[in-house]
Amino acid sequence: MLEISAEIPFLRTSKLTFLVWDETPGSLESWNGDDGITIFFQTRRTRELEFRFGPPPWGIQFPNNRFEYPYVSIHHISSNKYLAKSLATASEGKNLFVIYPKTLEVEVRSVFARLEYLYDDRISPDRISHKFGLTGKTSSIPEISNGKTKEIETKVLSFPPLELVGSTGKTKIRQFELTSISVGENGTSNGHHPTESLLPSTETGLEKESVVTEVETDPNHPYDLIESSFASDGEEFPSNTVNPKDGEHLLSEVPSKGIKPNPESLDKNSDTIESDLPIESNVNTKFSLQLKMMGVISLLFVLSVASIIIFASFYFKRSIELQLRDNNIRIAEIIGSKVKSDILGVVEKGRQIAITLTTQGLPEEDRKLLLKTFFQNDKEFIYLGIFEKRDNILVMKREVFNEEELKKSAVTEDDFHAVVNRNRDALAEAFNGQAVLLNSSPGFVEPSFAIAIPTAENGELDNALVIIVKLDKIIGAFSKKGIETTFLVNGSGTVLAHPKEDLVLAATDLTTMPIVKTMLTSAPSTGQMSYLDEELGGSYLGSFQKIGFADAGVITIVSEEKAFADVYKSQKTNLYIAGIGLCSALIFVFYFSKTITKPVLQLLTATLEIAKGNFKIGIKPTTQDEVGLLTKYFIDMGQGLEEREKVKNILGSMIDPVVVQEAMVDLAALKRGSETHITAFFSDVASFSTISEQLKSADLAALLNEYLSAMTLLLKKHEGVLDKYIGDAIVGIFNAPVPVADHELKAARASVDMVLKLQELREYWTANNLYSKEAQVMDARIGLNSGPAKVGFMGTDALASYTMMGDTVNLAARLEAAGKDYGVNILITDPIREKIQEEMITRYVDLVRVKGKNEPVRIHELVGYKSLVTPNVVEAVQLYEAGFQEYLNQNWSKAIQLFKDSERSKGSKDKSSHMLIERCEEYSLSSPGKDWDGVFTRTHK
Q1: Is the distance from CB of 328 to CB of 484 less than 8 angstroms?
Q2: CA gap 788, 674 in Å, rounded
Q3: Contact at 8 Å (CB) between 607 and 304?
Q4: What is the mean pLDDT of the chain?
Q5: Are 7 and 14 a contacting pair, CB within 8 Å?
Q6: How far apart are CA 151 and CA 254, in angstroms?
Q7: How many CA atoms lie less than 13 Å away from 403 in the CB half-sphere?
Q8: Sequence-distant (≥ 6) Cβ neighbours of residue 185 within 8 angstroms
Q9: Percent of the chain scoring above 90 in pLDDT
């Protein structure tokens, strides 16, 4: 629910309305804000409080206009002033709606009160406080004119744009303003209100804004009228010290400018400012910090850069070379293993065809059908012949062609005979018991290779099996990738496969290449060498891997010139940069090292401000110089940061706000865990792997975010707790860590609503042609189970998450997976069905024994709400359950008929009915026996 406040005039022409959000997703879904611009106000605490105008929480779709602005500190005056002027321009004459949680009531009103004052500082601070409901919090703050001393300094700052987000996308709104102001002799401004003009920007990058930064010597500046509103748990934010990054000077610098500080101000802050100076001046050091830094930084920089220049080139090149060698030999080994597997597969299939050709008693029609089926399944297989040797002449006994492939190409049967005749001497080696691998491409339109192996007939190796296969079978492994070139040669050095097709068609002899010659003459099956190739020109690194068939081998080569080109270029660039950096650093350290002392002392002052929070840890500094003081106070600060880290670790290990809230109340109880009756929820997207392979990363992320956001909102709507996301899967818990009445029914409602919501998403995606066709028909499976389970923080002391464990949880996960087999969206168990049958339609699907459990489980399909289920579906459910009862009674034929009637009544395919029909048909042939209990045992998860 949203509590709407009264309208407040804002920035002269706008109207501001505060909406207090109860932190439930449903209340935000009901808000549209179509008659104005909405702001989702969010805060965080780093070193100080920061706020932003952020996106809608929980991924809620918000189509109407809203503002977005990144996190900005409440103390960053320039950024806040810029934001106020941007808001005034963008919201002129419009309504602004600010949505925020109840816990940020003071912060949100304080921030917008500040923006109002920064836009027009002529308005009384008391008037602004009363206007925004802050009266009584800052009543001691005086008017702007009292006790004011300013030092004007002009700087150029850059700010992010205020973005207007709506249905048409994002519109960036930037302020480009020129501020002119002069300083009088007394140090006060002669023009209290600067003249401002909005100018169109012609820059394509981030525009610059010339702003006036002010050094405030009065601690009661009207801008800090709500400073105390941001203090919590005794923590204070300094009201008179502004971050130096904002262009403001620290108070300790004011006297050097000739401006007298306000005595009252110094009195009020004596413990934070004046106490720094005695500590700083009483430090007794043997060597000053300036001298130490000059000596140490110069020495370390010279040694480091010199070492890098000397050793970087050598080790970098060596590392690259080792990686290149390792990658080269790995490629040869991987491709060699694949090619060997493919060739042996061809040989095995060839033997099968030969058996088909020579089998006696096999009807010719069956023989032709087997051959046709084989060639349809393996189109690269184009020829097989069985030959015998008569008087040193190859005589063909039987042969078979891939007729379909011959029709598609210009190759004839005579071309195959010509290949055999042309290579008869080489093929004849098969009669000697040797395997032969040849390039059969010459004379063919496309590359191919031939294999000849000895084969037995009548118990003797008196025949040779000749196989001709398209090179497409293995050429994919030799495509050009990167700078490496990989090719295949046979035992005589003839190329069989190469990225350059013309070399394959010409059956080029590569024995002149040193790496090929080494492979042919080398006994080891793997080798590597660097060599100078006169034909190709240049030095190469080559690796080979013999495939263990017909003395063939895979060779990978890479040009060293290409491999090390980037290395040489990078080395040269690094040397130039190192030389320039060394010279620049030496000059900088020499001339500007003394300026380091001053920022360090300023940092000491800031450290003392932080130390007011009494942050303590039990160690002491080890030095007595300025760094020792810094160490002391940073150690003190570390004790406080340690406590904050504990809170951060708690929040970082949480997922759901309900868990966070319970952890803040009693974290120890959640860590101990408890045995609780819960409802476990598991959902998963069907065939998501296929969908993910078809989408680009950006589209996949958009699809997943849209789906998970919609489903999570429904989970939260029905009081479920999000356990975790596992890819596209959602794991949820009902009735833990907080009790939920009727949690079984609410889990069922959430599941049915998710199925209906997914149907809406599919229709939307289809209508707008979003994502892929498979995504537009995306479906999900859900498993629900209720029972006792262990809930609490699980993990390590350093990192843990709130989750659930036990048989109840495991069974819910099994049901989600089983939904695929039964073709249903939602599967539930008896405990769920008993609690929802008055409101929901269910179907008793099966009696199973899931993997990992001995006890049988009755599983039901959750069909939907009774008010939404059509009569034909109700009838289908009744027929199915009647059929299942007959199935349990072993009346197989009657059960089959009822299952068919159920599917017919449903009007669509029912996978569950088909599964039970198959079981009935199987049991009718092989009866399970009189003692059969009707339980079906699932053998997979």
Answers
A1: yes
A2: 10
A3: no
A4: 76
A5: no
A6: 9
A7: 6
A8: none
A9: 21
